[in-house]
Each structure stands twice: as C-alpha cells, then as structure tokens.
Amino acid sequence: MTQGSVCALPTTAPHRGRRIVADPPSGPAALSPREIEIIQVWIRLGANKLVAAELGVSEHTVRNHVTAILRKLDATAMGQAAVRYDRWARDRGHNRRSGFDRRQGERRQP
Predict the structure, then answer these.
(1) What is the DSSP secondary-structure string of 2-69?
(2) Does domain 28-94 have CATH number 1.20.120.30?
(3) Domain extents for the chain?
(4) Coil, strand or helix: which one is 101?
(5) More confidently predicted of 94 and 30
(6) Phi/psi of residue 100, each to 5°?
(7) CB-CB contact of 84 with 28 (8 Å)
(8) pLDDT digits over 27-69, tens only?
(9) pTM, two decimal places
C-alpha cells in the first residue's frame, strides 16, 4: 500500500457493512434495579422532585431514569408506566405494599 491509500475490508452481504443490532430489551423485565426503585418510589410519591428528595439524588438524575423507564415500558407518561409496571409486578406475585411474595409464601426483604 502506498501512503494515503485506504484499505477497504471486505463486508459480508447482504448487509454491506451495516451492523445489525438487536432491539434493546423492553418491558418491565428490562428495568434495572435502580429504575425499579425509581418507579416504586414514584408510584408512592408521584413527582420527580419528591422522588429525588427521597432517594437523595438530583431531580435531573431522576428525569434521566424516568426517560429510560418510559422508553423501556413504551409509555408516554409516568402514570402509564406505573400502571404497566404495577400490573407486571402483580402478575408475578409481587405485592409492593405488604412486601409479601405469593410465589414464595414468605416476606420479601425491603
């Protein structure tokens, strides 16, 4: 090769060099432990500012988590996301209020 020339690496057809990226996981199962904590506190308190104060983080941090939660739950508002999360949690035997896990028949650790 001479100076200034470009070496083109072969690509695999039919994608012609484009990467195929799998869709990111979605739905409540895709939420991180911190996002679950954020949505649970949000369900209880109902406002980003209150969630931030409760968890000792900035409101901006809460907004970032809320954005990720909305995307993963395919929701347009936190009320809608909260309903989707709550249904998912109840369907799996989680009862947030009492801390009782019906599947295990024992108390969950808070």
Answers:
(1) -TT--PPPP--TTTTTPPP-PPPP-SGGG--HHHHHHHHHHHHH-SHHHHHHHHTS-HHHHHHHHHHH
(2) no
(3) 28-94
(4) strand
(5) 30
(6) -95, 130
(7) yes
(8) 777 888 999 999 999 989 989 999 999 999 999 999 999 999 9
(9) 0.62
